[in-house]
Fold:
Amino acid sequence: MEEKEISQAVISRLPRYYRYLRDLKDAGKERISSQELSRIMKVTASQIRQDFNNFGGFGQQGYGYNTKYLYEEIGKILGLDQQYNMVLVGAGNLGQAIVKYLISRQSGFHFTCAFDIDPHLYDQTIAGIPIRPVEDLKSYIDENDVDIVVLTIPKSEARRSAQMLADTKVKAIWNFAHVDLELPPHIQVENVHLQDSLMKLSYNISKSGNS
Structure:
């Protein structure tokens, strides 16, 4: 049977469901209805049911959802029951913050090495993760199982790195450089623009009459 195509809009909501359900589970909430989840998340109950029906539904009419089960199933859909080996390219403040945050979350995202152009960093570590010359990146990927490369470098360097990574076995790039990267289909790319969120906030402030 052909696998059902899930829209990106649905996929983009899954991490938010996962986050809210984790908080509900940790608070001891055993069951929740789509109406209750709707009030908490500000998403219509109909939309929630439609989203979950893409993956089999998970609940029983009139009985709601088992919070822990739903949380775990969404985690599996997101691939969070697996471990991903990651490397960082760009060991500046942002890169270090990302590594430390993910390590503190004890998630399935496991950093194995960091790379930078600054030789003063080569004898240092980030939360125990060694920093190596960026020239070693390709050979490291060739010799190790690397799933995700995190880029926190200038956009000109990000383009060069992306061209090199296109010919490696890397599965994905989490890109924080100020440029949208496009790679061959075998490499997934998530372009993250932090300033976009800040500019959206600025817009909403200016339209609210509080500026």
About this structure: The radius of gyration is 20 Å. Helices lie at 8-26, 34-41, 45-53, 67-77, 93-105, 137-143, 155-165, 194-208.
